[in-house]
Specification:
The complex is a heterodimer.
Chain A lengths: L3 E3 L5 H7 L31
Chain B lengths: L1 E6 L2 E6 L4 E5 L1 H11 L4 H11 L7 H16 L25 E8 L20 E2 L2 H13 L6 E8 L6 H18 L2 E8 L6 H10 E7 L4 H7 L9 H15 L3 E8 L7 H10 L4 E6 L15 H20 L5 E2 L12 H5 L8 E4 L4 E3 L13 E2 L3 E2 L2 H8 L15 H4 L4 H8 L7 H25 L5
Parallel strand pairs in B: 4-6, 4-12, 6-7, 7-8, 8-9, 9-10, 10-11
Antiparallel strand pairs in B: 1-2, 2-3, 4-5, 12-13, 13-14, 14-15
Classes of the chains: A little secondary structure, B alpha/beta.
């Protein structure tokens, strides 16, 4: 790659296979209480792709 | 679908469906744009080699950038297709367990903040404190309805939960007494206005609470505009020393200083910087006010440019602070690209009314704290369980595929369709769209990704 740098990100397609355990925090529970954002929620399943 | 933008000198491309993020030089940025518009490669090569000729760009350089693009396309990281909606995620029929409760342990408060969810402190007529027996039943209800989920979250909320501190303590002790046998892990959060903080509260919360949310709006004049007691006296001078002591004793455990900004302080980065630089806090959250559109404090669409500028100022300043070794955390810029949520989480919405419920002091169930005491949204109670199944089904369908506006939105897998309460307040329908909130959300994600890009480019600068 000469012109593009790709950041390391979770593969959404793979996460459809390994994800869905539901152990993660509910979106609103931590700090905001006023908006729904899931991007800042860490995955609780450390083995999932 | 892709989203391209330039911020703080970084050309950023988000591939929406794969979640991939790319940082490009100017040439590749244009090559991606033209490819997305459907231009054939020979036209792109001609167009860009002419347009960039003054910068020494050759036709071969353009071909190289197109090769990069095709390599990423082949890897499923650019121009990837939407495959999740077809995966038979039947979101209405899905079985849901309850994994989080917001316990309104005190329908009363020692402050009288005019923007409060609890409707200027009057709680729509319902006052009172949750009894231990009611709280205990709520915890049992949570365990009984949590299936195999191990991590259970309970938030002590209100009103002001420390006005019922003894019950909070008893409920945590009860939860600890059953969690091993029930194979559960309770995570408690305390959200407090600070007035009732004592050394005992600090010691208890730092031992028992996974997170504490400390309400402070920033500068004294900003905080005291809304956060007043019943005599009209501002709370800043009383709460700031308590919060500082609380955080000092927290020993690295999670906390957030949580502020609200309104139309009166759209320069809210000054409040964030005040909390960081003058007061010494590093974990910060600043939320747009939830207010009736007719309220003078409500944010309006015409405020958006100023708000966007503020987020950019904050993002750039956070990069500077990190480089200087004194980073701060801003809740809405936190984004975990490698170990963030799976696609199920991203498409299934916030969980209100399904995985997450609010419990009133008298034991009634509501979809979340923002619907409490609206009779149309009562879902049941902790003794009989969720009895309004139609309402629950309606919330199950509050997700990224239920709102037509989300179909064309690049940020949909970051917000999961948005906040049902915000949608309800803005449009009268939980399946509506709070457009001002969407614009604010998108700007925050752009800033968060730019910070990640800046961090990545320090490690591996782009060539060409």
């Amino acid at each position: 790659m000469k012109h593009i740098v790709t950041l390391d990100t979770r593969d959404m397609a793979k996460s459809a296979v390994s994800g869905g355990c539901g152990e993660c925090q509910t979106s609103c529970q931590s700090a905001c209480k006023t908006s729904c954002g899931v991007a800042n929620q860490p995955c609780e399943n450390k083995d999932a792709e | 679908m892709i989203h391209q933008y330039t911020l703080n000198g970084y050309n950023i491309i988000l591939d929406v469906n794969s979640g991939s993020i790319h940082v490009t030089d100017d040439l590749a940025f244009e090559a991606v744009r033209l490819t997305d518009e459907g231009w054939p490669q020979d036209r792109i090569i001609k167009e860009l080699s002419e347009r960039f000729s003054g910068r020494g760009v050759t036709a071969q350089d353009v071909r190289d950038s197109l090769d990069d693009i095709e390599e990423l396309r082949a890897a499923g990281k650019l121009f990837s297709t939407e495959t999740f909606e077809d995966k038979a995620f039947d979101l209405k029929k899905r079985s849901t367990v309850i994994k989080a409760l917001c316990l309104l342990v005190a329908h009363t408060c020692n402050l009288n903040c005019s923007y409060c969810f609890a409707a200027q402190g009057n709680f729509k007529g319902q006052h009172g404190l949750m009894s231990f027996e009611t709280g205990k039943r709520a915890l049992d209800f949570l365990v009984e309805n949590s299936g195999l989920r191990r991590n259970l979250e309970v938030d002590f909320f209100g009103g002001e939960p420390l006005m019922n501190f003894e019950v909070c303590k008893e409920l945590v002790a009860y939860a600890r007494s059953i969690e091993k046998e029930k194979k559960k892990n309770f995570r408690f959060t305390l959200t407090t206005n600070g007035i009732g903080i004592t050394d005992e509260v600090i010691e208890w919360a730092n031992r028992e609470c996974h997170n504490v949310v400390l309400s402070l709006d920033g500068r004294k004049e900003v905080n005291d505009r809304f956060r007043k007691d019943y005599t009209g006296r501002g709370s800043y001078d009383r709460i700031v020393p308590k919060f500082q002591r609380f955080v000092e004793k927290r020993g690295g455990k999670g906390y957030y200083m949580r502020g609200t900004f309104t139309r009166f302080n759209t320069d809210f980065t000054r409040d964030i910087f005040h909390m960081a630089d003058d007061l010494g806090f590093s974990e910060l959250s600043m939320e747009p006010v939830v207010a009736d559109p007719d309220s003078p404090s409500a944010l309006r669409p015409e405020d958006l440019p100023v708000i966007f500028d503020q987020y950019e100022i904050l993002a750039k300043d956070m990069i500077r602070r990190e480089e200087e070794g004194k980073p701060i955390t801003f809740y809405h810029f936190m984004i975990d690209l490698e170990h963030g949520p799976c696609i199920y989480k991203r498409i299934s919405g916030c969980g209100s009314g399904t995985e997450y419920l609010a419990v009133t002091a008298s034991g009634d169930l509501y979809p979340c704290h923002q619907f409490v005491n609206d009779p149309e949204y009562k879902m049941g109670d902790i003794w009989s369980g969720v009895t309004n199944l139609q309402l629950r089904d309606s919330f199950k369908l509050c997700n990224v595929y239920s709102r037509p506006e989300c179909a064309d939105c690049w940020a949909r897998l970051y917000c999961a369709g948005g906040c049902a309460a915000n949608a309800y307040h803005a449009t009268g329908d939980i399946h509506g769209t709070y457009r001002t909130g969407c614009e604010i959300f998108k700007k925050r994600i752009e800033c968060a990704l730019m910070i990640k890009a800046a961090q990545a480019m320090k490690k591996k600068p782009a060539q060409g």
